[in-house]
Amino acid sequence: MSIWEYANPKKFMQTSGAVLPWVAALAAICLITGLTWGFFFTPDAVNFGATVKIIYLHVPSAMMAINAWVMMLVASLIWLIRRHHVSALAAKAAAPVGLTMTLIALLTGAIWGQPMWGTWWAWDPRLTSFLILTLFYFGYLALWQAVENPDTAADLTSVLCIVGSVFALLSRYAVNFWNQGLHQGASLSLDKKENVSDVYYVPLLISIAGFVLLFLALVLLRTRTEIRARRLQALLLRERMA
Amino acid sequence: MMDLGKYAQVVLWSYAGAIALIAALIVLSLWQAAKTRRALREVEARQDQNNG
What we know:
The structure holds two protein chains of two kinds. Chain A is mainly alpha-helical. Chain A has six helices and no strands. In chain A, α1 packs antiparallel against α6, α2 packs across α5 and α3 (85-117) packs antiparallel against α4 (125-146). Chain B contains one helix and no strands. Chain B is rod-shaped. The A-B interface holds A 35, 39-40, 44, 49-51, 53-54, 57-58, 61, 96-97, 100, 103-104, 107-108, 111-112, 114-115, 214, 218, 221-222, 224-225, 228-229, 231-232, 235-236, 238-239 and B 2, 4-8, 10-11, 13-15, 17-18, 21-22, 24-26, 28-30, 32-33, 36-37, 39-40, 43-44, 46-47.
């Protein structure tokens, strides 16, 4: 069996239809467990007080905002190189999900920043590149809407996605590139000293798993909708031509 | 109700905002999926009828 089999819309619909309920159920379980554990059953941090509980939303959403763009980049490259329509539609389907994750990360970051840094916003390298990534998400969605021919729209949005990837990578690694700015380093690290304390670690991992599965479930659902919409367009066109 | 101390508003607004955004995205995705599926079924049924 090859992954390219899923480039066939029929095969994709069959498999995604079977997998989607399980992924959605697992996402709900992980999100409810991770967020409830984090919110109700973890102690306040010495330096951050109760605001540490925002970590269970902020870290997974920021992570998924960047990973969604990387997923869109891979799907866009597949479209540009192999011209598989399902991959272009999957990239289109992922964009609103990625944008929502970006907005959650910005919102929770700003709400947390006000009491901790004394400001809602700072022109810090990581925050700035993340804001530019948000603008790329809006631009990407607008471009899909603006171009009528779906193949041309897929081509143009794929190129935009490649350009935007610079900011997706920058927002992840800006802290390492520029040793300045307010934003702290990664919350999860292989280095035990840099990692979050053990008491926050497990619920954070479960929340991250929940966000990953939620992203996957929504992308599958939305890609299925895009495939159906494309078929609907084709049938209506055929009806008009007849 | 648990005590979130002086940061209660900060934490609660973060959770409320994030949950609202996720819920809106889920509802919108489900609504779009149902609308498209219904429209496709109608067109397929109509074309099947026309083709005898």
